[in-house]
């Protein structure tokens, strides 16, 4: 990870629905890097996870199904790539930071899945694949709101 990316990750703030922000040249000022408009996600509450030189995060709403997204952002570029549109079946309203284990990202949703009690999911950037690992049923837990 480059020093510039480390600084961005350490000082980055996610607005409660609006933008991905970075420190500006003048101390105390912030620069908007990306606006979340709804179609690319909305309400990005969690922090970001760095894998190589790419940052990954989630939005708890917005996207094509209004159930949230998983996105990537590469510093220096002016856009966010929507990688997963949650649809209820694979989860709904992800709101916690993703965990990187060997290049695979893991996360949880508090809603959606077979019982609408949340899911545990994985995303593999190299293959652009998402998998539902667990559907919470109440017997094995429900409505996870913290990261994994």
Textual characterization of the structure:
- It is a single chain.
- The chain has a domain of 102 residues.
- Helix content is 6%, strand content 37%.
- It is built from one helix and eleven strands; from the N terminus they run H-E-E-E-E-E-E-E-E-E-E-E.
- The two termini are 22 Å apart.
Distance between the termini: 22 Å
Low-confidence stretches are 6-18
State the order of secondary-structure elements, H for helix, E for strand: HEEEEEEEEEEE
User: How much of the polypeptide forms β-strand, as a percent range?
Assistant: 35-45%
Rg (C-alpha, Å): 15 Å
Contiguous helical run count: 1
Please give the largest β-sheet. 4 strands, antiparallel
Biggest sheet, spatial arrangement of strands = 4-5-6-7
Proportion of residues in helical segments: under 10%
How many β-strands, per DSSP?
A: 11
Give average pLDDT, whole number: 84
Q: How would you classify the helix and strand content by structural class?
A: mainly beta
Shape: globular
Organism: Acidicaldus sp
InterPro entries: Gloeo/Verruco_rpt (IPR022519)
Protein name: PEP-CTERM sorting domain-containing protein
Signal peptide: 1-27
Brief write-up:
It contains one helix and eleven strands; from the N terminus they run αβββββββββββ.
Could you name the key traits of this structure?
four-stranded antiparallel sheet; mainly beta; 148 residues; Gloeo/Verruco_rpt; globular; single chain
Structural topology:
Elements (H helix, E strand, L loop, with lengths): L2 H9 L1 E2 L4 E5 L6 E6 L13 E3 L2 E6 L9 E5 L6 E6 L13 E3 L2 E6 L9 E6 L4 E7 L13
Antiparallel strand pairs: 1-2, 2-3, 4-5, 5-6, 6-7, 8-9, 9-10, 10-11
